[in-house]
User: Fold GlpG protein from Photobacterium aphoticum.
Amino acid sequence: MYRLAGLSNPRQAQAFIDYMASRNIALSLAPEPEGMFAIWLHDAQDLVEAEAELNLFLANPFDEKYQAASWQVAESRTARFAYRNPSLINMVKQQAGPFTLTILVAALGIAVLWFLGFQQFLFDWLHFPFMDGDQWQVWRFFSHALLHFSVIHVVFNCLWWWILGGQLEQHGSSSKLVQVFLLSALISGFAQFWFVGPNFGGLSGVVYA
Assistant:
């Protein structure tokens, strides 16, 4: 689903949704904070036509064709306004690319295992290299970013990673985000090791890079 627009008047928004239904384009209305109502497009293939029709609607929302469309569908609709909340998974996927989601899932999965009691095992495998031989285990220079030690720690970092990483990947590219992740994890890892020693982890160094 794609968020097409946000309107403050739900009746006008529903009139537009009804009109687009007559053109076989499915839209849904969902309440948002501060009294706004989001119009969600079900099929991204209809985006160009939907945006063009939306511009026409915003220019003249009181055109009779919108009111007529509402009357036509009123009899078949059990409720005057049908609000549909897009699923959380779809909303997360809409705002993130594949690499953002990969790191997000990895960090959350590792956090779950951490809270289930595998702390020592995970730390032994993912900590920043500081013992003899660790420096040859190249993944350690980056894997420390996936370690989190509390619920607040992982939730806060993953939220910022999803927001910032998702924006960078969507407006840039996945390869660009991979480069940013690796470089920032490497630099922040050395910096944290220098100041606090080997007992650190988390995406903080990446999201603040």
User: Anything to note?
Assistant: Residues 91-207 form a domain with the Rhomboid-like fold fold (CATH 1.20.1540.10). DSSP finds ten helices and three strands in the chain. Residues 78-82 have pLDDT under 50 and may be disordered. The radius of gyration is 24 Å.
